[in-house]
Amino acid sequence: MRRTPLACAFAGLTLTLAACGGGDGGPSEGDGKAAAGAPLTGRGPITLATGKDRSGNMQKMVDAWNRAHPDQQARVIELPDEPNDQRQQMIQNATTRSDAYSILNLDVVWTAEFAANRWLAQLPEGPGGLDTSKLLPATVTTGEYRGRLFAMPLTSDAGLLYYRTDLLEKAGVADPPSTWQAMWAACDKVKALPEGKGVDCFLTEVGKTEGLTVSTAEAINSAGGTIVGPDGRPTVNTPQAKAGLDFLVKAVKDGRMPKAALTLDGEGGRRHFQAGKVLFHRQWPYQYDLANKTDGSSKVAGRFGVAPIPGPNGPGAANLGGHNYAISAFAKNKATALDFIKYMADGAQQKANSLATSQAPTVAALYDDPDMVKKYAFLPTLKTAIEKAKSRPSAVKYGDVTSAIQGAVYDALGGRTSTGQALTGLQSKLGQLTTAQ
User: Fold this and answer.
1) Are 208 and 261 spatial neighbours (Cβ–Cβ below 8 Å)?
2) What is the per-residue pLDDT across 65-114, written as a single tens digit (0 to 9) for each?
3) What kind and span of H or E run contains 160?
4) 30 pLDDT exceeds 70?
5) Which CATH entry fits the domain spanning 33-157+320-388: 3.30.360.10, 3.40.50.1100, 3.30.565.10, 3.40.190.10?
């Protein structure tokens, strides 16, 4: 799977930034060294830097590796739960050229930044290397930078709409909503029920975290707008983008979302849904297994369904998420790290992990696997969502880009600026960040 390299452009939504390759104090890549593949050597202990292992299944997979590789033990290093904090700790580790992290579990939009700064080792493909031919094509592009593979897709993601089947049934609503207006109408019917008292209508992440960038991208894309155009230039100051942002702002202002929405992160939202406090919840696939647990941690087990996210005139445009494994350029035992990635990316391992956690796999055939479909009936919906999903802007200075989006949108959500002012200011700020040299 190869793409023609474009000077400082990454197909579609990738931003072309000032300094074209140097970010967060990183060196320029004008000499092309960042893209040069080098043999991955060294065997011995390795570490995996990752976000929270909420299911405990990652550790089980690592334990199985360790039993089979007594001289090449892997150790999980759990980073903070919030993606912004994970990214910052990984950057701090890289800028000091530390070998503390061997493998990095990267959000899909971090590849460009980490590869351009030469913080990652290029991954070999083909015989003896990694095989991406069996993966969903949309996931493969998230691990590439300038046509070369720097991160192996391990899990994918696309935003889904979780909804309370029991409450919709009581309200006489036969199908989950496919439009924003249908969602509000269904909510009004549910809230008129005794069972609907105190239940919030809708929740998506609007706290000042990475989740806000995701929610913003989904709302704008669903309304037919974009944050960045195919040429890498910002396109956020448009009527379509305003319609998307207006949807989020009005949902907060009109009380469609809970008062706590502006402070909840993804895990806070999950707990809110599992406590039975919200009717419609935009969330990632991982929530499915957790919300269906019958150990007392979820009050909605067996009483919810999953559908595509709605848009203004029909199903919306989900955001493409997921996580990829990359090898730190400063790791000691890169050969072991590569073998570990092969082990974790294997189809059998992905299937076992998905069955245990409801995380979306990247191996395409698993979406038609009988065992998988039997447990997760929503897999065809998820596959379609991933194939049609839109990406957040991927950028060499991703921190600056996502901070600009979060700042502008959060001010609009809090009523400090109008949506028009927020988008005008964001257009200008992104324009400065995307000025090519």
Assistant:
1) no
2) 999 999 999 999 999 988 989 999 999 999 999 999 999 999 999 999 99
3) strand 160-164
4) no
5) 3.40.190.10
Predicted confidence (pLDDT) at residue 285 exceeds the cutoff of 50: yes
Sign of the C-alpha dihedral computed for residues 118, 119, 124 and 128 taken in this order = positive
- Bridge-based pairing state of the strands 320-327 and 200-203: unpaired
Cα 139 to Cα 120: distance, rounded to the nearest angstrom: 18
Alpha-carbon span 111 to 132, nearest angstrom:
16
Nearest alpha-carbon partner for 38 in 130, 99, 121: 121
Query: What digits encode the pLDDT tens for the residues 382-406?
Result: 999 999 999 998 778 888 999 999 9
DSSP state, 6? B
Provide DSSP, 259-319: GGGGT--HHHHHHHHHTT-EEEEEE-TTHHHHHT--SSS-S-TTSEEEEEPBBSSSB--PB
Domain covering 160-230+237-318 assigned CATH 3.40.190.10 in the classification: yes
Please tell me whether residue 125 adopts helix, strand or coil conformation. strand
Answer yes or no: is pLDDT of 298 > 60. Answer: yes
Q: DSSP code of 26?
A: P
The secondary structure element, H or E, covering residue 366 is none
Max CA separation in the chain (angstroms)? 67
Q: What pLDDT, in 10s, does the model give residues 36-51?
A: 467 899 999 999 999 9
